[in-house]
Structure formats: C-alpha cells, structure tokens
Amino acid sequence: MPGESWSIVAAFALIAYLAGSIPFGLLLTKARGHGDIRSVGSGNIGATNVLRTGDKPLALATLFCDILKGFLPVLIAQRFGPDAAAAAAVAAPLGHIFPVWLRFKGGKGVATAGGALLAYAWPAALAAVATWIVVAIVFRYSSLAALAAAASAPLYAWLLLHQPGPTLVVLFIALVVIVRHRDNLARLLRGKESKIVLRKRRA
Predict the structure, then answer these.
(1) Residues 6 or more apart in contact with residue 188 via CB below 8 angstroms
(2) Would 197 be classed as within a structural domain?
(3) Contact, 71 vs 118, CB < 8 A?
(4) Fewer Cβ within 10 Å of end Cβ, the chain: N or C?
C-alpha cells in the first residue's frame, strides 16, 4: 500500500516496540523455577544467557520467542506498506534492547533483530544468520558471532536487495546491535569474554 499514512506507520512502530519489549527470557526462566535471569551470567535476558542456566530447551524456547516477536510485527506491517514495515523492523529490536516493562534495561537485540530482518529482508537475514553460525562454531563466542553478523548484514542487504532504502534500514539496525555489544567487544579485546558452553562443567 504505497503512501501509507503516518498514523499507520506510527501505530506499527508502537506495536512492534511493545512486542519487542516482552522479556521472554525473564518470564520463561521464572516460570521454570530458575529465578531472575538478570542475576545469572551476564545479566542479559536473551537466549545466550538463559543457556547459562543449563536448561537448553528453555534457551531454545527463548530464542524462538525472541525471533518471533521481531518477525510477526514486521510480517503484518508489510501488508500496510514499506514504511510501516521499515518502522516495525527498527522498533522491534529497540523494544528488546530498551523494554518499557524493565525500565528500558533489556538485552542485546540479536535474535529480535534477526527475526525482524527475516521478515523485512530475508535474503540478507539468512546470509547474516549463516555468518553467525560459522563464527560461533569456529570461535565459540556468541558476541563475536553477533558482531560479525551485524557488521555483514548491511553488505548482504546491498548486494542481495539492490535497494538503498531497505539497506539503510538494515544498516541502522546493525549499528544499534553493534553499539549494544560495545562492552562485549572490549572484553573480547582483553581476552575476557565468555565462550559458548553447551555442557555444564563437572565439579
């Protein structure tokens, strides 16, 4: 729907933000009896930190929910035009990073950004996911994989979509994710970043 009204664009930005703000990692870990995930590991509410509880199914559920809360608002917004879709794609990860329900202290936004981009620019999103997987397997740093995926996503968008508008949207989302990982980057440079651990270490 070309030329959609700004009220529609604003409405989808708000809807996507509120959806992105749902702290599934916190809600699921509390429901499972693991307590407040913000007191575990990095204090993040995302799937990587949920994995540090040792509950792999719960971490997978958190990952799925965080992806979905980025994917669905954008998918619906696309029916109302490209501006609404772009607004939703930007707002959903911002909701995860700055959730209104948690006094604007949320996660890193990787999974939610991935879900939003999967609906908004799926070729670039799939290429970025492939980058994340390769880097995570080789180096076993979730943060490094996220940084590599975010840094490469705008390039993939430019090469695969050939549209400056969507490429700029992807670039903005990528920059937000990268800035959110600045502490992780500092720890990586100091050699202090935690690696991905799929099994609990035996005492």
Answers:
(1) 141, 143, 144
(2) no
(3) yes
(4) C
Q: pTM of this prediction?
A: 0.91
Residue 21 has a CB neighbour count (10 Å cut-off) of 22
Cα–Cα distances in angstroms (integers) from residue 137 to residues 17, 40, 145, 163, 198, in the given order: 31, 23, 9, 31, 12
For the chain (length 203 residues), average pLDDT per consecutive 10? Answer: 77 98 96 92 89 92 98 97 97 97 94 98 97 96 95 97 96 97 93 77 44
The whole-angstrom separation of Cα 39 and Cα 53 is 11
DSSP assigned state of 45: -
Residue 127 domain flag: yes
Buried b (16+ CB within 10 A) or exposed e, 129-168: bebbeebbeebebbbbbbbbbbebbbbbbbebbeeeebbe
- Which tokens sit at 161? 């979509």
Find the domain containing 62 and state its range: 6-190
Structural domains counted in the chain: 1
Instruction: Classify residue 110: in a domain, yes or no.
Output: yes
Integer CA distances (angstroms), 63 to 150, 164, 177, in order: 17, 30, 16
